[in-house]
Protein: Oxoglutarate/iron-dependent dioxygenase
Organism: Arabidopsis thaliana x Arabidopsis arenosa
Amino acid sequence: MSLERSRVSMQIVKACETSFWFDSWSSLGCIIEKLGERGYIDLGIPKTATVGEVMAMQRRRHHRTGLLNQIEEEITKQRMCNIAGERDIALWKGEKDSYRNKFVTSETWRQIRNAKPEMEGYKGVWFSHSTPKYSFITCSAVTCYVEAIKQLACEILDLTAEGLRLPPHTFSKLIRAVDSDSVLRLNHYPSSNQFLSGAKVSDMSVSLPRVGFGEHTDPQILTVLRSNRVGGLQVAFPDGRWVSVSPDPSTFCVNVGDLLQVMTNGRFLSVRHRAVTTGHASRLSMAYFAGPSVHAKIGPIPGIITAAEQPRLYRTFTWADYKKFAYSLSLGDNRLDIFRSCVDEHDELGF
């Protein structure tokens, strides 16, 4: 592996992990600056621990020092924020141009899922009333774009595997499979002004400027997103803040999905994010959700699990099982709890 490739792979790993000791993940700032190296012993938390790993620990500690207890309170606060954080309010357009705050995931899934691994070109794009003269060009362009984005996602996953000292195709082979369950979705978020024009709102208590796509994580392995010059994407920080991502049509935004969190045994955390609308323009985006075959078995990679420092956090399941469960929940629910390894590996999943 070249030095440049090695540097990029390590940057990817570093970007996906928040250090408990060296990053400012809470209102207390950098923990190592507060406690010094003695803190590793006082708190019983390894120097290399990430925030995600500490959140997964079973901690019920009371210390003699006020500062140590403050840190324990921040850990508890962050854990509760991750489990039951404040929910977004979002409106979804239904029949007869009415709006409601319930998102029907099953209907959306039926619209975006690709039931066949391969489709003939002339069936790839269709219109209800007429077929434009050059529709085949649109179909060809979309096909080429999907293939290019798939290759980009595979390259990112290969670099990720190398950074974790795993075989290079550990993750990418799941989406290179012929029957991989990947999806390209086109999103249009009308401006707040456009929404207010003639819309029938069923719940007038809803805060209109927040209309968009409510907070959630993506259930797949990886998401590659591209948008126009209109902002709206926000990601959640560990301390509960929402931070806007600057729009740039020439760049891609890459989100870790739930399955990658499981396969890295919690080292990489799936990104909780949302889309909010602006008052001046509509937002357009294209999201490629890189998913495995529905029959693929997903679980922590053995090379990442160590009995002492990093025990197994998740059980093994198929993508079909997880997808069925994920789309039965509300948009912002935490889906991974039921798949934690504290449940007996031989028990039936309750869904």
